[in-house]
From TrEMBL:
Assigned keywords, A-Z: Signal
The keyword Plastid appears for this protein: no
Annotated protein name in UniProt: DUF1501 domain-containing protein
Signal peptide: 1-24
InterPro entries: DUF1501
Length: 410
């Protein structure tokens, strides 16, 4: 079965801490525009087949007998989207946006490059030049340089531990530290400090038991939250646990400072090789705060949400078949999320051929029918009003074939 739909969207937001953890309005000058774009990158490759699950396909639960979502209405069931696709129940906070047709998904989308390396795939998605490692800048940096109006560092903002690849380039950009980063190692994880505290408290008659229990609990939480491989795949991006608070601050800043136009936020914790879970578990625990944060962002933006597009994307998808560890491995195609006041939402867009064995890429994962650059280019052209010549500067290696759906428009 091949399904093709047509979609519409608009652009989006960000947050700016000033001073010691305080939040204030930036006074920096920037080209005034009420059209915004926020990009949320899920580092580690989120499992799009459980975010927007093809519960109407008989092959789905055959491939995922323990982590697959049940049909809508059943215990642990997906939330019905269109009778065929179902939304992960941990994303229930996004249902009002779906019902209001302000949220849509583009399934079987992603990078045409076949790599399953987190680092290469993230680099290609941030440079928007799949297969090319020599691109000197990121596409959001090229985008802000191509937009009309005076340039200012506050016009292009990133949130994370370091300036991300997507913001690097000749145009000015500001990178801000995460305010609500989660699951960081504490002081006692330093060997010398731990040894000193062990000597003080390990055999203490009064505090020894409490100290040992506390350290054991900390180790258990840290081990459960992050494997070494997952930490590497996240590139320092925090878990989404604190995203709702950051989203609220972001929305407040955007309402008060119209100069901020483009924003990038990265969230980690999506490399679910083991113990992924189905309706509950590891993936669900990541999706719940992500969905809550996106819902908070939409609500707190108020009328500005009508001129905002939020795009959620990840470097690649995951295997259609669950592995022996109750997880999924590196895949290919995925689902992009698009939300905004003028999005033609309430639908799942893109070509779709199901998850039967013969329809899978290399017999293991979703193919990529929609190049992620087609979605981004349409938002840039239709919403941010870039002409063809400037569009070529932002996306220099765009394929000849464009996606068969519109992203922005009446």
């Amino acid at each position: 079965m091949r399904r093709r739909h047509f979609l519409n969207a608009v652009g989006a937001g960000l947050l700016l801490p000033v001073g010691r953890g305080a939040w204030a309005v930036s006074a920096a000058a920037a080209g005034p525009t009420n059209r915004k774009l926020v990009v949320v990158m899920l580092r580690g490759a989120v499992d799009g087949l459980n975010v927007v699950a093809p519960v109407g396909d008989e092959n789905y639960l055959r491939l995922r007998p323990t982590i697959g979502l049940a049909a809508p209405g059943m215990e642990g069931g997906a939330l019905d989207l269109d009778g065929y696709f179902g939304l992960h129940p941990a994303l229930a906070s996004l249902q009002p946006l779906w019902a209001a047709r302000k949220l849509a998904f583009v399934h079987a989308s992603g990078s045409p490059d076949a790599t399953r390396s987190h680092f290469d795939a993230q680099d290609y998605m941030e440079s928007a030049t799949p297969g090319r490692k020599d691109t000197p800048d990121g596409w959001m940096n090229r985008l802000v340089a191509a937009l009309p109006g005076p340039q200012s560092p506050s016009r292009l903002l990133g949130i994370g531990p370091v300036l991300p690849r997507i913001l690097s380039g000749q145009a000015a950009a500001v990178n801000l530290p995460n305010v609500a980063a989660a699951a960081r190692a504490d002081l006692l994880d330093r060997p010398a400090v731990k040894a000193a505290f062990d000597e003080l408290y390990a055999n203490h008659p009064r505090f020894g038991r409490a100290y040992a229990d506390g350290r054991a609990a900390h180790r258990e939480v840290m081990d459960a939250l992050e494997s070494r491989e997952m930490l590497a795949a996240d590139r320092g991006a925090p878990l989404p646990n604190g995203f709702p608070d950051d989203a609220a601050r972001l929305a407040g800043l955007m309402r008060n400072d119209p100069k901020i136009q483009l924003a990038f936020v990265a969230l980690g914790g999506w490399d679910t090789h083991a113990n992924q879970g189905g309706a509950t578990g590891q993936l669900a625990n990541r999706l719940a705060p992500l969905g809550q944060g996106l819902a908070v962002l939409a609500e707190r933006l108020g009328p500005l949400f009508d001129d905002t597009v939020v795009v959620v994307m990840s470097e690649f998808g995951r295997t259609a078949r669950e592995n022996g560890n109750g997880g999924t491995d590196h895949g290919h195609g995925n689902a992009m999320w698009v939300m905004g006041g003028k999005v033609r939402g309430g639908r799942v867009y893109g070509d779709w051929e199901g998850v039967g064995d013969a329809k899978l890429n290399e017999g293991r994962d979703l193919p990529v029918f929609t190049d992620f650059r087609s979605v981004l280019a349409q938002i840039s052209e239709e919403h941010l009003m870039l002409g063809d010549k400037r569009l070529e500067q932002v996306f220099p290696a765009m394929p000849q074939k464009r996606a068969g759906f519109r992203i922005v428009g009446a």
